[in-house]
C-alpha cells in the first residue's frame, strides 16, 4: 500500500516524452523563439524588475538577468537540449537539474511582477521531485552508502512514484487550504466564485482593452450566480477529488481512475466558469492516466482472448 511499483521501459519513455512536450510548451510564450523572428516581445523580456518578489525571488534578485533577450534565448536553447537528454534518459541528474532550474527561475520572475499565477506550479513541482530522485544515488554516495531499491524496482519507477506524489500533493494542499479557510461552508459559498471570475476577466480587459473580455466575464459569472446548486456540485465534487488525490499512489487503476476524474473536473470547471488549468490536465494525463500502458494492456488482452478461442470449424 502506497509503495512504488514497476513500470516497463516504454511506459517511462512515453511519460518522459509527453512531459517534455508539456514543459517546453509551458515556456514557449515566455522565452524568445529558437528559430525565426519573434512574432512579439517574449513575456520574460518585459520583466526587468521584481517589484513583488515571491519564492526564491527573495534570495536571488539577479533572476532579472533572464529579461535580457540574449540570455533568455540561450536559456531556451539549454532547456531544449536538457529536455532531449531527459527523454533519452541520459545524464538525468544534470539534464533534470538544468530544466528544473530554468523552469522555476522563469516562473519565479513571472510571479514576482505582482500577479501570482499558479497554473504552472504543478510542472515545476514534478520536475523538482524527479530531480531529487535522479540525485538520490549521488546523495547516498556522499555519505558512503549505496541506494538499495526493493527487488524488481528501478530508479525510473521511483521517479514515476514521486511524480505522482508531487501531483497528489498539489491537489491535497489545495483542498486542505480551502477547508482551513472556510471549512464545509466553502462548498455552500462556492457560487461566490463569480466575483473571482469577474476579477479575472477584468484583468484581461485592462491588459488587452478588448470589450469581449468583459462580455465573457459577465456570461461565465452569471452562470455561477444563476445556477448555484450546479456550481456547488461541480466545485464541491472538485474539492472532494482534491482531498482524496493521494489515493493515486495505491495502484495503476486508482491512478487512472482519479486521473480521468481530475481531468473531467478541470474540463467541467473550464467549460462552465472559464477557469482553465490545461497544465494540470496534461500532467494528470501523462503520469496518472498513463494511456500507453492501458493501450498495450488492451491489445494484449484482445490477443490473448483470440488465441484462447477454439479454431473455427468448416
Mean of all residue-level pLDDT scores: 89
The SS-based structural class is mainly alpha
Q: Ends: how far apart?
A: 51 Å
Order of helices and strands: HHHHHHHHHHHH
Tell me what you see in this structure.
This protein is mainly alpha-helical and 314 residues long. It is built from 12 helices and no strands. 32% of the residues are buried. Helix content is 68%, strand content 0%. It has helices spanning 9-28, 69-88, 92-111, 121-142, 155-182, 185-188, 193-208, 212-226, 228-243, 252-273, 278-289, 291-308. Helix 2 (69-88) packs antiparallel against helix 3, helix 4 (121-142) packs across helix 5 (155-182) and helix 10 (252-273) runs antiparallel to helix 11 (278-289). The protein has 2 domains: 1-143, no CATH class; 154-295, no CATH class.
Helices and strands, with pairings:
Elements: H1 9-28, H2 69-88, H3 92-111, H4 121-142, H5 155-182, H6 185-188, H7 193-208, H8 212-226, H9 228-243, H10 252-273, H11 278-289, H12 291-308
Short characterization:
With 314 residues, the chain is mostly helical. 68% of the residues lie in helices and 0% in strands.
List keywords for this structure.
mainly alpha; 2 domains; 12 helices
